[in-house]
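User: Okay, second chain of the day. Same drill as before: sequence in, structure tokens out.
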Amino acid sequence: MLRSVKAQDYMCEDLITFTPETDLFEAINKLLDYRITGAPVVDKNGGLVGLMSEVDCLKAILTLTYHEEEMGGIVGTYMSEEVHTINHDADIIKVAEEFINNKRRRLPVVKDGKLIGQISRRDVLRAVEQFAQDG
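Assistant: Same drill. Structure tokens below.
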């Protein structure tokens, strides 16, 4: 049964993350270097406090340009604070429903409020494929 397969079984644990204090241009460079569209923002205790996406970076640049500022600022100023997450023990069916209903590509995986990984649509497909092969 696919309901026995949990988010934590297929999530990626090796994540690029930022802190609210991360320099904006350092964050932009990491997104470009690692070819990712966004990264979770965590506090010093590992708690998930936001998400910094390419769109957030573009908004920041436009804001800085509008105000004719040369300095970039920090991630905490420009990150999205409302982040949809999935619990570590959510079954793969629930994860798939979240992707479909909320049009997300990936979801941070949390346990007791702390970020422990991330799961993507591709991870769910991998879980289904493996389950079909094993069954």
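The CA atoms of residues 47 and 113 lie 6 Å apart.

User: Thanks, on to the next one.
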